[in-house]
Amino acid sequence: MSITKAISFTLNGQATRIEVPVDMDALTMIRDVLKLTGTKLGCGEGECGACTILVDGTAVNSCLMFAVDCDGRELTTIEGLATPAGRSVLQRAFVEHGAVQCGFCTPGLVMQGTYLLRQNPGLTVADIRRGIEGNLCRCTGYQKVIEAIAAAVHEIEKGDRA
């Protein structure tokens, strides 16, 4: 029998209260308990970035975070980036620039890119390259991803929001 704990947090702008096993990781909570499957399980060891989410605005590998550590925090998953008006500027740029191939790493790269843009809306290509180093992608060769994030930088400079 597993020990559980009730936790409360904000998930994609919605107050959430659930009970989780104390040894469950945040990724399992998000995917299996809350049924938000956009966040992907890649390596389960924090090496690939497929499970990247934002926790209080900071990019985090959710496979390395215990679910109980989400208590009192604000979590944003890929599902939380779009608004009723549509996709985020970065989500649109990924589509427009062909940065989506098989799609497996895409949510993690979009979340990491969102974090980077929110930290420094004036990113350079060098900043982008350094900023996505922890996200592995087998399909794109990264060039289209870098182009998409750079395009989002230009849209933000014109007044669009990350």
Overall body shape: globular
Q: Helical stretch count?
A: 5
Biggest β-sheet strands, sense, barrel: 5 strands, mixed
Distance, first to last CA = 43 Å
**Helicity range:** 25-40%
- The SSE order reads EEHEEEHHHH
CATH superfamily of the largest domain: Beta-grasp domain
Relative strand content = 15-25%
Q: How large, in whole angstroms, is the Cα Rg?
A: 16 Å
Q: Which architecture of the largest domain would the CATH scheme give at its second level?
A: Roll
Number of domains: 2
Low-confidence stretches: none
For the largest beta sheet, what order do the strands appear in spatially?
2-1-5-3-4
Q: What's the CATH topology label of the largest domain?
A: Ubiquitin-like (UB roll)
Assigned CATH class of the largest domain: Alpha Beta
Mean pLDDT: 94
What structural class do helix, strand and pairing data support?
A: alpha+beta
Number of extended strands: 5
Quaternary status: single chain
